[in-house]
Structures are given as C-alpha cells and as structure tokens.
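Notebook B, p. 112. Complex prediction, attempt 2.
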Amino acid sequence: MKRVTRTLRRFWPLYLMFLPGVVYLFINCYIPMFGIQIAFRRYNAKDGVYGSPWVGFENFKFLFQTDDAFIMVRNTLLYNLVFIALGTVLAISVAIILNEIRNQFAKQLYQTLILIPYLISMVIVSYLAFAFLSTGNGYINNTLLKVLGIPAIDWYNTPKYWPFILVLINVWKGLGYNMILYYATICGIDHTLYEAAVVDGANRWQQITNVTLPCLKSTIIILTLMSLGGIFRSDFGLFYQVPQNSGPLINVTQTIDTYVYRGLMQSNNIGMSSAAGLYQSVVGFILVVTANLVVRKVDAESSLF
Amino acid sequence: MMVDNKKGFQIFANVLMTFLAICALAPFILLIMSSITDEQALIMNGYSFWPSKFSLYSYRYLLTKSSAVARGYVISAVVTVIGTVCHLLLTTLYAYPLSRHELPGRNVFAFYLFFTMLFSGGLVPAYLMWTQTFHIRNTIFALLIPGLMMNGFNVIMMRTYFTSNIPDAIVEAARVDGANEFTILFGIVMPMAMPIVATISLLVGLAYWNDWMNGLYYLNDNSMYSIQVLLMKIQRNLDQLRQQAQSGGNVQIADMPSTSIRMALTVMGILPIMVIYPFLQKYFVKGIAIGAVKG
C-alpha cells in the first residue's frame, strides 16, 4: 500500500498524461468492441444495442445461408492476394530500377511524381476513373476505342472488366508508397557488398540477384506478412466509391466492408451486417496476431508485440 | 563495351521511370484539362487531353456563384488543423510516458494501446454508438472525432523516436533541476523531437484533409460538408449544384456546365495537397519509410 502511494506520488504526472488517450481509445475502440454483441441480438432501435433480445447465432445462420457471404469473402481474399502479389513484385522492381539511376535530380523527380496518386482520396480517384470510363464522354470510349474502331463499352454495367480495373487502380495508387518502403531498405544496403561483388566480376544483373534481393529478403517477408494479416479487410472507397455503387457490378465489387455498409445504411439489415462485421473482426484478429507472431520469428524489432 | 552497356541500361531505366511517372500523372492532366474545357465541347468530344475549346467558366462559377466550395474549404481547413493538433497532442501525451522505462505499469498502457490495433468492433457498433449515444450526426465533431484522432501506429512511431533519440540524461538533469514532467515534455523533449512531429503531422493532416467516410456515415446536412464530403455527395447526387443554383436564382439550370464544374471542383479538392507537396515531399517519404518498417 505504501509502495503504491509512493509510486503515485512520484509518477502521477506521467499517469495523468495517459488519461486523454485512455479516454479516447475507450470511447473510439473499446465501447464498439463491447457493442459487437449486437451480432447475437435481434436489434431494434427502441431497446438499443444492450437491450435488444438475444437470438444466439441466428444472424450468422441467415448470413451464411445467402450467396452474399461466399461472394464477399471470395472477393475480399482474391483481390487482396492479387494486390499483395502484384504490388510487391512491381514495387521491388521499380525500387531497384530507381536505385540504379545515376542522375540524382531525375531520381528525386521520379520518386516525387510516382507518389502523387497515394496522396489523394478515393473520392477523387473515382472522379478520375469516371473521366476515363464514362460511357457517354469518357476518354476511353470517346477517343481510344474510336481510334481503334471498337464500339463503346458500357463500363459501369459490365462486370467482367472490373477485376482488372480495380487491380489497375490499386497498383496505380499504391505503387509509389510500396516502392518507397523497399527503396528505403535498398538505400540502406552496405556499399562494400556491391564493391565486393564487382571485384568478383558480377555484372549489374548478378549484383541485383546476389546482393540487392537477398538484402531485401527480410523486408519482403515482413511487409508481406503484415499485408496478409490485413487480408480480410478492404479499402471501402475502392470497392464502393470507384465503381459508383453500380448494381450490376456487385458480384465483382462486393467485399466484406461494402456489405457491412450496405446492410447498415441501405437495406437496414443490422443483424446480418453486424454478423459480417464480427466475422471480419474475429478472423482479422486471428490473422493479425498470427502474422505478428511469425514476424517476431523473422525480426523481433518489426513485430507489434 | 562495358561503358555502352551501362549507358544502355541508364537509358532503359530512365525511359521506364518516365513512362511510370506519366502514368501516375496522366489522370490528373485529363482532369485539369476537362475542368478548363467548354461544356459544349465536353459534351461533343468527351474528356480529352487537349480540349477543342477552352473555358474558365466552371472556375468562375465555383468561385462566385456557389457558396458550397468556399464553405467546404473552410470546413476542410478547420477540421484538418484542429484534428491534426488534437491528434498530435493525444499521441505525444501517450507516447512520452510509454517511453519512460522507469514508469511502473507502463506495459499495461502499452497493451491497452496495442489491443486497439489488433481487434476492432467494426462499423456497426461504432456507428450506433456515435449516432445514438453521442448524437454526433451533422456536427463538426463527426468529421473530427471518429477514428481519426489517435492511432496506435503513430504513438509507437513517436515512442520509438523518444526512446532512441532523447538521452535519459537530459530528462534526468531537468528533473534534478526541479522541472515537472509537463515542462520536460513540452519544453525539452518536444523541441528535440521536431522531425517526427513534422512527419506525423503531415500524415495526419493528409488523412483529415482526405477523409470523406465520416461524412458518409454521419453527415446529411450540406452546411457541414467539407470539400471531400461535398465531392462524395455530388457523385451521389449530381443534381445538387443545380439545386443550389436554383435556390440562388442567378443561374439558369440549362446553361450549367455540370461536368466541367465537377472536374473543377475535383481540381480544387486536390489543389492544396499539390501546392504543398513539392515542398514537403521529403517528409512524406520519410514518414512512409519509418512508419511502415517500424510500425
């Protein structure tokens, strides 16, 4: 007891500093965590989150009886896998090529320009995409396809193109960001390694495969694992705003996040929406924890815990 | 031979990077060009990189006839500034005691923070709480508070900076001199931590400026729309500007160049970022590099 008082007397200002953050996190994060129980209730506005009647796993039963559950999980996982694979390969290739460029000014300029798409919101991206894809006066239909003599395509009503469009937009927006992650590591590689390789007669390509890539290995593993930890989450803006919430595209644009939003705000199906949300949170939690446990094995410094 | 090879590679690398840079920029050029295209030309020829007829009408319209843009700018700016300051304050106040290794029980607070990065209640409970318990709908708080005001990664980034760049001896010396913890933090530690403060401010400021999802969830009163929320809502309801012109009474609905106005508005949404980005590019890059690897 005496020790507690002594600790408090000495450290109270430090504990006091935690207070605003503790309160904010409690409201913003912890109350919603308790609120997750509505997935097990039949929600009605009158009784609220904590008073609506319990229904056990009914919401989940309904959710998994629909095709929606399969479609949204399939889309979320597949898009993320493609984003991670393609994003990583392109980012590493571009980072290596950028590093080879001699002209310092050009190097800086390329890096600056490629990062620009990362800085804008998905709402802006959706306007940019529309300028290209608009059926009536979009650049592709009106100029590119006209020149090639191909009839106009009704992009926002044709699902088969959207997996490519969404991957392209994701790569376009994320390339600068991902490239910097790897470029930072490449810049940190010890120069004497390259000098030694040159002495051994290695050409440029051999330097890349024998020095650069091995030095990048742990960064690649860590970043990929971290991305895999988030594979159950999706960028709501990319899948909802960019396709302009177009009905015919739902089959290829529905992810868990868009389903939860649509259930909550549009079809007013709070039960199934919250069940999908809880499913996402729990699987996401398992994935993040697993990813971090593996990362800790690779490099303890980079793990969250 | 060797020299030629090197030269060839340099050309290849520069051509490739130039191509990527053009790809990154092309949509923005199309956007800017469309915003200064005459509406009739836009309807006739569609979006194009070189308009057949230029017109600055949409900018004139947005700057003189529509109050939505000016209001949107003010709201975006206010939210970005207040939000960033609050975020920094919360982050610093949490990160500093976490970095004091002599503090008993700091692991409890570290876990309390980490857990929010691992598990989340998701949208539905958060939405119900903000709207029903806190009645945040259609208030400025809707754009400021939910989700954006504190973030585990930034706290960890700052704590790591404190532990590796602020010598214990300095803190100890200040304590011996009788300085209290708040004076130490804001008078001694913070001035030494300006690089990380700058980096986090930029990333947070960008997040606030670009946010439209809080507007999507919690706003439907158009007097509260920030510029991003305005753009998002317009995409949902392309008639909105038309209605404003109607109530303003100055403009005939028929001659409203809606497409180029939308493009001009989009340009205005990214303009502040594009203006400051070249000057602060270095900090953005640094923020991304440390943020992700040391996250």
